[in-house]
């Protein structure tokens, strides 16, 4: 990979990844704020929606709890808790119901032994290890005279972060699809509200798509810079 003065052209890939991530984050925030203004016609809250989905799915071992923060909602499969943020738990907005429903979708996946979710859970320690060790190994390889073994090992470990991101995509899209189907079939959402919830969840899903693309671009940059095994002197 040629350099032009002090400019590394592969930085374009880093910048592109940042732009994609920022655009996705901005879009999800604007979409949530837009539909956070629409109050549910049935008057249900995010907590009501979550409990309804769990009940309809015959899930009795998951508790619904409140956590501090804004959009810090999550499902914790290790202790079977569905954690709803202050912005979601008591809100009757269509956006809040969508967020709560999505997290319930993960609880439904867990109960159904949805294999992509189990695969993602299994990849967590490997992806974390890869993210932690990849760059130090590459840097050590450079310090030791462009040691190809260490550099290629670092790139290989970084690829697990991309694998984790890719496996996450179907898990997130499927969780939303399950939740919206239960809400719409059960009558908690009106015909006008279903498309609104879908737009909120689609915007949220785009953040995972952007994260995957950004990670891919970072991996591509590492391969372009160090993967060829050519003499850098």
Explain what this protein looks like in three dimensions.
- This protein is mainly α.
- A three-stranded mixed beta sheet has the order 1-3-2.
- 37% of the residues are buried.
- The model has no long low-confidence stretch (mean pLDDT 90).
- This is Peptidase.
Short description:
The protein contains 7 helices and 3 strands; from the N terminus they run H-H-E-E-E-H-H-H-H-H. With 233 residues, the chain is mostly helical. It has a domain at 11-39 and 94-226.
Topology:
Blueprint: H1 11-35, H2 46-56, E1 63-67, E2 74-76, E3 81-85, H3 86-89, H4 94-111, H5 115-143, H6 148-186, H7 193-226
Parallel strand pairs: 1-3
Antiparallel strand pairs: 2-3
Q: Give the overall shape, derived from the CA principal axes.
A: elongated
Through-space gap between termini:
13 Å
Give a short account of the largest sheet.
3 strands, mixed
What would you call the quaternary organization?
single chain
Radius of gyration: 21 Å
As a percent range, the share of strand residues is: 5-15%
Helix content: 55-70%
How many beta-strand runs? 3
Pfam family, one: Zn_peptidase_2
Protein name: Peptidase
Transmembrane segments: 12-32, 123-144, 150-171, 200-224
Keywords: Membrane, Transmembrane, Transmembrane helix
């Amino acid at each position: 990979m040629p350099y032009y003065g002090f400019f590394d052209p592969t930085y374009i890939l880093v910048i592109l990844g940042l732009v994609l991530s920022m655009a996705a984050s901005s879009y999800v925030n604007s979409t949530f704020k837009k539909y956070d203004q629409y109050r549910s016609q049935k008057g249900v809250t995010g907590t009501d929606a979550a409990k309804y989905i769990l009940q309809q799915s015959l899930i009795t071992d998951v508790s619904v709890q409140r956590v501090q923060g804004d959009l810090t909602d999550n499902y914790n499969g290790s202790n079977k808790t569905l954690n709803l943020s202050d912005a979601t738990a008591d809100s009757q907005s269509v956006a809040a119901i969508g967020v709560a429903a999505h997290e319930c979708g993960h609880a439904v996946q867990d109960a159904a032994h949805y294999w992509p979710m189990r695969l993602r859970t299994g990849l967590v320690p490997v992806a974390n290890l890869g993210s932690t060790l990849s760059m130090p190994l590459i840097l050590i390889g450079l310090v030791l005279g462009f040691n190809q073994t260490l550099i290629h090992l670092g790139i290989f470990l970084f690829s697990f972060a991309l694998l984790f991101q890719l496996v996450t995509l179907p898990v997130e899209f499927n969780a939303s699809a399950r939740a919206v189907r239960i809400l719409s079939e059960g009558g908690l959402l009106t015909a006008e509200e279903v498309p609104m919830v879908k737009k909120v969840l689609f915007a949220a899903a785009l953040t995972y798509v952007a994260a995957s693309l950004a990670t891919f671009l970072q991996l591509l940059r590492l391969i372009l810079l160090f993967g060829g095994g050519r003499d850098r002197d």
